[in-house]
Amino acid sequence: MTTSPRFSPAASEFDFTSWMEAQLHHVEQALSQWVGVDTPADLGDAMRYAVLDGGKRLRPLLVLAAAQAVQGLQQAATRAACAVELIHAYSLVHDDMPCMDNDVLRRGKPTVHVQFGEARALLAGDALQVLAFELLTPADAQVPASMQAQLCRLLARAAGAHGMAGGQAIDLASVGQSLTEAQLRRMHSLKTGALLEASVAMGMACGVVSETAQQALMRYAQLLGLAFQVVDDVLDVVADAATLGKTPGKDADNDKPTYVSLMGLEPARAYAQSLYQQSLQALADSGLQNVQALSALAHMVVGRSH
């Protein structure tokens, strides 16, 4: 059996910008190679439109950063990074459709159903979802079968009724309702947080990690997921469409509960900063040395403007 290369320990001087550019280039190349190739009836055009050349790629970066922290298998991490991005992309395609959020702008361009029609958008989302699991189960032996199964289980759990889909169901059912902070946190821990947490868990699954480190990294992932949503709610209020890349103010227009509506703008900003500091402490508690990329990603999430 061919042994897949593992991530090497990072140098003591970590250049996050260079690291991120290299990882983004790697992920983009892999996605371009795997998405929408040889599909019938031009379905691939809609699939590629939904995935390529857009988005922050936060979830793939989290997979790769976590895999690097545990010196995981590179081939497995690459496939996991692309798979989680495909699940994220499919969810956006479906969420933007008229039967859900009915949005016309995503990643600075028309949404998939606006560009290709509702029927093809629905099929493109379906095809992206299935492709994610195909990528996690390659026919060659570079990714051990037990690792393939673990990666599939983590991603399926995060995407289904006990994760992203369940969170979206709560979101739709909560329009116009008053939620407590605990209820709002649960909704977003499923809708947004589950896939972010799965990204870290999938990265860890590409290597070997102690129970202590695993628990600390998952605590980091939970805090990051919550911080991401708090910042998202803040940006929905303060950013414009050109900066945000999607229609701002949609939550308020649809009377959806948010951290800003619950806490106020400045308290929500302060809460995001508190979550960031807690996430850094979780990384320190892991005892792992190579967590610079994870730390920098947390800073990027809380400091982002779109």
TrEMBL record:
InterPro entries: Isoprenoid_synthase_dom_sf, Polyprenyl_synt, Polyprenyl_synt_CS, Prenyl_diphosphate_synthase. Keywords: Isoprene biosynthesis, Magnesium, Metal-binding, Transferase. GO terms for molecular function: metal ion binding; prenyltransferase activity. Its cofactor is Mg(2+). It comes from the Bacteria. Signal peptide: none annotated. Transmembrane segments: none annotated. CDD domains: Trans_IPPS_HT (cd00685). One of its GO terms (cellular component) is cytoplasm. One of its GO terms (biological process) is terpenoid biosynthetic process. Pfam families: polyprenyl_synt. Belongs to the FPP/GGPP synthase family. This is Polyprenyl synthetase.
